[in-house]
């Protein structure tokens, strides 16, 4: 008896999905920020194929989008999920914090690999004093929720900082935090030390070049050959600004009494387009910056201060996001355009499947339904 065509299509799609999950190919060491402030992005299911074709297995979200987390069920991709600034103060309440963890993290484990929660983004350099005060208690509540649920060994909690938390960054060995930020950071650093969670920093050498292109050597910010800058205190030579920025943060943390906290770069990137008053925002420089950065990451290179600790980096961002506010550069940090074409050429040519047909959508929905049914049975 002939097998109906929809049935053949179903089993073909399932076979392709399963075979893709078991491909054993060495992955890129870099992580990627997956922002979604846009009205033209591909569906998470299509993005899954794109990331798998690129062998990118670490993704940072700015929320805990169920559509994304469901699309990546039973893949090897590790996720950082986020609690937005608007929800941070609510997390001070332990009951609400535990409810959030149950709804946005526990329900997906272990099928979707969630390894970190960021509570807020760049809060300490904002103007909301109440939010700054609430950040650490919120982080502690989320952490306690993980402990209560038995998830603290597989999921850590942190927050991401803007680089201007530094009051001094040159030379790197003299790095120190701004006095108005230090009062908040001291107890936060104590938390990181106890829980072994990372200190995240959003670092953009592009901003330094944009602010002062006449005095910031382009080669120094683009990882191109140059004489570098020697720290007069340590005699360490820096041939690029990003590593100098990272070691400045390490020095600032050490100045506050901690040498046991790992610093990770939660965002770095270079825009491929900008406004007329945004020097350097072009595809040529973006390709050089990201291309050279990826080379160094794949070499597992450390900074001059931490030569044996590979720089853990999440590139910003996966897609250009057409609805982001601010200057044109803000909408043009993506490695890819929403149609899957590269924003510039660095040799990353991934596969973004075409828009799903009605039949394929039926299969995806059916698979998702089966997955959520299984999850519900587990939690029941």
TrEMBL record:
Gene3D superfamilies: Glycosidases. Its EC number is 3.2.1.39. GO terms for biological process: carbohydrate metabolic process. InterPro entries: GH, Glyco_hydro_17, Glyco_hydro_17_plant. One of its GO terms (molecular function) is glucan endo-1,3-beta-D-glucosidase activity. Keywords: Glycosidase, Hydrolase, Signal. It comes from the Eukaryota. It is an enzyme of class 3 (hydrolase). Pfam families: Glyco_hydro_17. It catalyses: Hydrolysis of (1->3)-beta-D-glucosidic linkages in (1->3)-beta-D-glucans. Residues 1-27 form the signal peptide. Belongs to the glycosyl hydrolase 17 family. PANTHER family: GLUCAN ENDO-1,3-BETA-GLUCOSIDASE BG1-RELATED-RELATED. This is glucan endo-1,3-beta-D-glucosidase.
């Amino acid at each position: 008896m002939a097998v109906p065509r929809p049935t053949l299509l179903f089993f073909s799609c399932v076979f392709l999905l399963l075979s893709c999950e078991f491909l054993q190919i060495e992955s890129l060491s870099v992580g990627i920020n997956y922002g979604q402030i846009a009205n033209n992005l591909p569906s998470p299911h299509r993005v899954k194929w794109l990331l798998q074709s690129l062998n990118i297995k670490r993704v940072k979200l700015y929320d805990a989008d169920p559509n994304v987390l469901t699309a990546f069920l039973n893949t090897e991709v590790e996720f950082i999920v986020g609690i937005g600034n608007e929800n941070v103060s609510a997390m001070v309440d332990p009951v609400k914090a535990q409810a959030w963890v149950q709804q946005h993290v526990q329900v997906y484990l272990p099928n979707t690999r969630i390894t970190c929660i960021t509570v807020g983004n760049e809060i300490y350099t904002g103007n909301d004093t109440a939010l700054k005060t609430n950040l650490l208690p919120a982080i502690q509540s989320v952490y306690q929720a993980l402990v209560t649920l038995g998830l603290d060994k597989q999921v850590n909690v942190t927050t991401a900082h803007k680089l201007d938390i530094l009051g001094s960054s040159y030379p790197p060995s003299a790095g120190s935090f701004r006095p108005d930020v230090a009062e908040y950071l001291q107890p936060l650093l104590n938390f990181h030390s106890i829980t072994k969670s990372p200190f995240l920093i959003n670092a953009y050498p592009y901003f330094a070049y944009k602010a002062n292109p006449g005095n910031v050597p382009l080669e120094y910010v683009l990882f191109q050959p140059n004489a570098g800058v020697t720290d007069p205190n340590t005699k360490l030579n820096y041939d690029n600004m990003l590593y100098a920025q990272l070691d400045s943060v390490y020095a600032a943390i050490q100045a506050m009494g901690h040498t046991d906290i790992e610093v990770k770069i939660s965002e770095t990137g270079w825009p491929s387009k900008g406004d007329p008053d945004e020097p350097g925002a072009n595809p040529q420089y973006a390709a050089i910056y990201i291309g050279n950065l990826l080379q160094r990451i794949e070499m597992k290179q450390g900074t001059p201060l931490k030569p044996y600790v590979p720089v853990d980096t999440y590139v910003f961002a996966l897609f250009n996001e057409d609805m982001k506010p601010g200057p044109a550069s803000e909408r043009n940090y993506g490695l890819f355009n929403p149609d899957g074409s590269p924003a510039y050429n660095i040799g990353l040519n991934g596969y973004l499947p075409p828009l799903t047909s009605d039949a394929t959508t039926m299969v995806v929905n059916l698979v998702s339904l089966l997955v959520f049914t299984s999850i519900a049975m587990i939690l029941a």
